[in-house]
Amino acid sequence: MCGRVVSSSSVTQLVDWLQVDEVVAPELAPSWNVAPGRELYVVAGTRAGTRRLGVMRWGLVPSWSADPSSGPRPINARAESLLDRPAFADAVAHRRCLVPVDGFYEWRRLPSGARQPWFVDPDGGGPLVLAGLWDRWVSSAGEALVTVAIVTVAANDDVGRLHDRMPAVLSDPGAWDLWLDPTVVDPGQVTPLLQPAPTGYLRLRPVDARVNNVANDDPGLLAEAEEPATLF
Q1: What is the fold of 5-222?
Q2: Distance (Å, whole) CA 147 – CA 145
Q3: pLDDT band at residue 99, thresholds of 50, 70 and 90?
Q4: Domain residue spans in the chain?
Q5: What is the pLDDT of residue 232?
Q6: In whole angstroms, how far apart are CA 154 and each of 97, 159, 167, 221?
């Protein structure tokens, strides 16, 4: 799964990396411990063929939900069952997006029972571009809430040493146009893009256990653990 990410890149960096044409996002404060319920930068496509950078709250609230404060607000969407879940089936056809992050955390249980966090990011640097689905809920007063879920797939050999799931990483920029194209409404054309990242694309390292508390949020969270936990 994907339940905690790092989002410290600036709007300027994201515009350059993802070839964004229009920015409708406020500049978010950098965060090294983004939890569900917080806002994330998201890139969506327009019918004019351009890319728009905005922000959405992490945890999908379907447009048909009676109340956004109750009921499920999934943060992840399993690629294998997208068409079986009403909350995702329409979104995969009409509301796809990119979720650029600097990396994500995964945990491994140590013999002591403690949970050791590991940070996962691209081995070559730059953003990690995740496949996302979004929706817009509108209240009776006309107030809109725009939310997003991150698509997950079976883990590759690297991440699989920690967990059996991982975010769907769109590592090939050539895939971004197809995933973002709102004129492509056949899920069969886009779901083949949802694959584990190539082995070796990501690097994993144990980091400060303060990550376990969402109240902690500073660059020091990415410091390598003094006593690295083995994966084996």
Answers
A1: hypothetical protein yedk fold (3.90.1680)
A2: 6
A3: very high
A4: 5-222
A5: 47
A6: 20, 9, 8, 27
CA atoms within a 13 Å half-sphere pointing along the CA-CB vector of 186: 3
pTM of this prediction? 0.94
Give every strand in the sheet of 202-206, ordered side by side.
Answer: 31-34, 5-7, 103-109, 115-122, 202-206
- DSSP 3-state of 92: helix
Nearest to 221 by CA among 136, 88, 117: 117
3-state secondary structure of 18: helix
Q: CA–CA separation, 97 vs 101, rounded Å?
A: 13
Rounded to whole angstroms, the Cα distance separating 76 from 151 reads 6
* Amino acid at residue number 119: F
Q: Give tens-digit pLDDT for 147-165.
A: 999 999 999 999 999 999 9
Give the span between the Cα atoms of 66 and 59, in whole angstroms. 15
Strands (DSSP E) contained in the chain are 5-7, 22-23, 31-34, 39-45, 51-58, 76-78, 96-101, 103-109, 115-122, 128-138, 144-154, 165-167, 202-206
User: How far is Cα 170 from Cα 154, in angstroms, rounded to an integer?
Assistant: 14
Task: Answer yes or no: are the C-beta atoms of 232 and 110 closer than 8 Å.
Answer: no
Tokens of 213: 């508390």
